[in-house]
Every structure is written in C-alpha cells, then in structure tokens.
Amino acid sequence: MSESGEISAKAFAARIADRDFALARARLLQVTPEFPAKPTRGDYDFNPEFRPPPGDRKLTPAAVLVPIVARDEPAILFTQRTEHLTRHAGQVSFPGGRMDEGDASPLETALRETHEETGITANHVSILGFMEGYETGTGFAILPVVGALSPGFTLMPNPAEVQHIFEVPLSFLLDPKNRERHAREWQGRKREFYAFNYGPHYIWGATAAILVNFADRLKAL
C-alpha cells in the first residue's frame, strides 16, 4: 500500500485470496443505506444534460450482488441475460433485480435474486458491505451489495433469465488500464458509458460503472 493509502489491484486481489476482507470492509459502507436507495451515482454521470428534472419520475428500487469469488485467483461472477427478456436482453449483469414487496431489505433482495438466477445460496456469501445507490437511465435505483463467495457453490442457472454465468479476474477489473469509455446512440441521443472487454465478454453500462465505482472506493477515502 502506498503512503496515500492506495492499493494495487493485484495486492487487493491477493488479500481476497487469503480471505482477508478487512480492507474491503473498511472501504465499503457498513450500514445499509436508506432504501429505496437515493442514488448518488448513475448513468447520467457522463451525460448530465439528459438527467430528468428532480421529481419527474419515480425510480424502481432494486439491488444487485457484486459477487467476488474468494479463490487463489479471485474473480467477479457475472450473468449474461437471455435474449428473450423484455429489458436488457443478452446483456452482462450482476445477479439481482427489483425489490419484491416481501423483501425485508435490499440485502434480502440481492441474496434472493442471486439464488433464483444462479442457484448460489446465502450460506456461501460473506457480506463485505454496500456501495452508493446507482440510477439507471431505464428508471431503476440500484443498491450494490458486495459479497465474497466461498468456493464450493453449485451453479444452477435459471434458464428463464440467465443464458450464461462466467467469471472475470478481479485484478483485471480493478486495473484502470482495462476500463474503456464508449459511446452509442440511444433514443436519438449520443450517450457515453464505461465498458470492459474480456475475451468474448463485453461488460458495459451500469454493470461496468458499478465496477469502476468499486475500484474507486478502494482508493484512500
């Protein structure tokens, strides 16, 4: 760790491999933010001119799990959504989704959705903390929950929602050299966003931005 408190991607990954989660917990929020989350980050960070006026729309509360597989080479687990879904078809996502009426907390939402989508049960997840709420252009207020996955879990993808489950090394995703800034036209407007390319996998939009926000939190506060 440098004098400024920053830690390299490889050094942080090595701590996770040793199941040393102290730094991660120190850099993440340890008290569940107000839910529905009041987003402080979002798709409009790059495109503030497109942000709707306050009060113009009601955001749908949601939560995702940012799952770090704690093995010798730690990795983050992702799902690729099926092509027939109404929203975000074929895109790479974290396990998660909108909050159900029966969910007592965003943590419960993230863990329930993770189990439903991937088959991973809550007993394999050690919660490391929370991040700031994230607003999507599609109208969701997402609360990211960061958790460490103990090896030994069994994957059972839900074929109705998940086409593929894969992992990307944590050190790759935390290295600023691997983040890219892309742009494309959406609803007649050019929008900018973060993206990562890893082999055949293209991680972009809210998922990529949450990864960047996570990497930023690992810097000195």
Spatial extent as radius of gyration: 17 Å
* Total strand segments: 12
**Which structural class matches the secondary elements?**
alpha+beta
**CATH topology (level 3) name:** Nucleoside Triphosphate Pyrophosphohydrolase
Segments where pLDDT lies below 50 for 5+ residues? none
Query: If helices are DSSP runs of H or I spanning 4 or more residues, what is the number of helices?
Result: 5
What summary fits the major beta sheet? 9 strands, mixed
H and E order: HHEEEEEHEEEEHEEEH
Count of distinct structural domains: 1
Name given to the CATH homologous superfamily: Nucleoside Triphosphate Pyrophosphohydrolase
The second-level CATH architecture is Alpha-Beta Complex
Q: Would you state the CATH class?
A: Alpha Beta
Average pLDDT rating:
88
Question: What are the salient characteristics of this protein?
Answer:
5 helices, 32% strand, single chain, 221 residues, alpha+beta, 12 strands
What would your notes on this structure say?
The protein has 221 residues and is of the alpha+beta class. The chain has a single domain (9-217), classed as Nucleoside Triphosphate Pyrophosphohydrolase, CATH 3.90.79.10. The chain contains five helices and twelve strands. The protein has helices at 9-17, 22-27, 106-118, 170-174, 205-217; strands at 41-42, 60-69, 75-81, 92-93, 96-98, 125-130, 134-135, 140-149, 162-169, 180-186, 189-198, 201-204. The strands form two sheets. Strands 1, 2, 3, 4, 5, 6, 7, 8 and 9 form a nine-stranded mixed sheet that branches. The longest helix has 13 residues, at 106-118. It is globular and about 45 Å long.
